[in-house]
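For this section, I looked closely at the sequence of one protein beside the tokens encoding its backbone, which the following lines show:
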Amino acid sequence: MRIPNSAPDHRRLGAYYIHIEYPEEAIRAGIEGRLVLRFVVETDGRPSNIQVIQPLHPLLDSAAVAALRRVRFIPGKQNGQPVRVRMQLPVRFRLLSSPVQANNDNGSGR
């Protein structure tokens, strides 16, 4: 069985990148951390049955669910036919301390 991908470019990365709007109120409150979503990728690539199985904060949980609803995956296949696939997606929210850090951040977490 082939596992769904969020876009052909990301197949080799083993990671999913979705655009999530960081809520202003969460930014002002300094809320950051990790949550986990569980969902089903339907045969047409739409995510369904989205659940927050490890919540972080209601503002960030809602933002992640809203962003996931906009994503279209390349469906999984079994014997050449599209199939529904259950997936889990960890989502990390991280605030950058300054614009300089945002420009120089190489993903090392330092």
